Amino acid sequence: HSYTWTSPWFRELFDKYIPGWANEPELLVRVGPIPDDEIWDAHMKAKGDLINFVRERTGIEMNSEVLTIGFARRATAYKRATLIFSDIDRLREVNRAGALQLIFAGKAHPRDIPGKKIIKEIYGYMRLLRGELKIVYLENYDMEMAAKLTSGVDVWLNTPLPPLEASGTSGMKAAHNGVLNFSVLDGWWVEGCVEGITGWAIGPPPDEPLSEEERRRRELKDLYNKLEYLIIPTFYDRRDTWISMMNNSIGKVAYYFNSHRMMRRYATEAYLL
User: What CATH number is given to the structural domain containing 216?
Assistant: First the structure.
């Protein structure tokens, strides 16, 4: 639901420039004329709100000027929350190229032992990289926290094991707030990704015939190389390009991936049978 998952600051911005968007989110396609500085200001207010929330919950002080990556969803094996830690030395190199902050959140089902293990592993990486890379795990994940995360980070990371992601919705929520998706090509992102325009893809398409080993190799290559050579330089050195991509995230992704359009199409196409 578009209005629910759009931050107060972007709601205000859309109300000003795109009247009626809340009842007809497809109007978000008209986001183009909104000035870059107003888009950035709305984003930074949402980011500041998230940073305050992190401080209140954990006591950890994050920096609003640092590229912040979010990963929040159910903690279960196929979601692969720890993929970014597969090569610690390479992650350190990426972080030296441009500072990163990572925010994780998500609960495991009480009987999901591998899911609980993943959360413990992330805490282990937090300890291992303390003083080098700022990492936070927010506990007691709920809708309030989800809304702050999907609106307040700069990049939304998603690394499921293809083809197990049926759809996924957190990246759609992020797009409503101009947050850029960096995701494995699975679920909805197969349709939503326009490389370098609406975000970035990790690894090959799910239908490309590859061995498990080769697929993982290409995923890790994309994950680290795109962070170091595309995402970090764009965020820190080409702010106009970054904001243009935020604009695309709203006008080319959020306008289409929302429940209003889905229900309208069900009513006019599927339910006519």
Answer: 3.40.50.2000
